Amino acid sequence: MPEPIIFYDIPGNAAKDQAWFSLNYKGLPYKTQWVEYPHIAGLCKEIGAPPTDTYPDGSPAYTLPAYTTRTRRPAVSESALIARYLDKTYPDTPTLIPTATDALHAAFQTALSTTFTSTLMPITLPATNQQLNPVSEEYFRRTREAKFGKLEEWSPPGPVREAHWKAIEAGLHKVTKWLSMDGKEKLFFMGETISMQISHCWLADLDQEGTGEWKNVKRWGGGRWGKFMEAFEKYETVV
């Protein structure tokens, strides 16, 4: 039996991160340890998880999720790197990123970010803040508002929010066209096979409030995005 995995993430992220999907899809045993936002940097340094980005002032940016075991040091952080590590370490489990498509997955992730996921921030980050525990909520609000202004003003009801949703719909429409380039309807980047880089996680961010707005998303494209989300429901368990 594989050595139990210790998985670190933020309370409120449950099953909406690609790494959650990766572990559940592979059926690997793991145990979650929750880490609040102010404690992420200290935890990452302790377990040897490298920074995943750099702040404008040049200082390292530490993020979760991160993955380790009792004998694995340093830890692995960032969802795509975790997926690649899991594929390499547990080759007898379902593959997340087939070797021959690795470069295409990396390119697709970048294209998806610029085309679609970048449009989500005004809608999803204020909603994310509402899911956090008080200690993380205060940190999240303070650090984001210092850069971008008051969260409640990012996407207020009315024309501004309507424009944000139109941008999201346009991005999803473009993704739909990518997935149908051969003239055939399919839900996934790999056809009938679920793969990590177009998992449901970037779309699940829109469902944080359970609002009527999310019901509209599920109807877009003739209901394809509702079906897309349903395909991942069995992998949303949090252990």
Structure description:
InterPro entries: Glutathione_S-Trfase_N, GST_UstS-like_C, Thioredoxin-like_sf. It holds the Pfam family GST_C_7. This is GST N-terminal domain-containing protein. There is one protein chain. 47% of the residues lie in helices and 8% in strands. By secondary structure, the protein is of the alpha+beta class. The protein folds into 2 domains: 93 residues, Glutaredoxin (3-Layer(aba) Sandwich), CATH 3.40.30.10; 135 residues, Up-down Bundle (Glutathione S-transferase Yfyf (Class Pi), Chain A, domain 2). It has a 4-stranded mixed β-sheet with strand order 2-1-5-6, with helices on one face. Helix 1 runs parallel beside helix 3. The chain is globular, with a radius of gyration of 18 Å.
Defining traits:
Glutathione S-transferase Yfyf (Class Pi), Chain A, domain 2; four-stranded mixed β-sheet; 2 domains; Glutaredoxin; GST N-terminal domain-containing protein; Thioredoxin-like_sf; two-stranded antiparallel sheet; alpha+beta; Glutathione_S-Trfase_N
Total beta strands: 6
Order of helices and strands: EHEHEEEEHHHHHHH
Unreliable parts: none
Largest sheet: 4 strands, mixed
Total of domains: 2
- Write down the CATH topology of the largest domain: Glutathione S-transferase Yfyf (Class Pi), Chain A, domain 2
Question: Largest beta sheet: what is the strand line-up?
Answer: 2-1-5-6
Instruction: Please report which band the strand proportion falls in: under 5%, 5-15%, 15-25%, 25-35%, 35-45% or over 45%.
Output: 5-15%
- The CATH architecture name of the largest domain reads Up-down Bundle
Measure the end-to-end span. 17 Å
Q: Give the overall shape, derived from the CA principal axes.
A: globular
Backbone CA Rg = 18 Å
Counting DSSP H or I runs of 4 or more residues, the number of helices is 9
Look at the structure and give the CATH class of the largest domain: Mainly Alpha
**What is the residue-averaged pLDDT?**
85
Structural class: alpha+beta
Fraction in helix? 40-55%
Pfam family, one: GST_C_7
Domain GST N-terminal: 3-94
Protein name: GST N-terminal domain-containing protein
Organism: Grifola frondosa (Maitake)
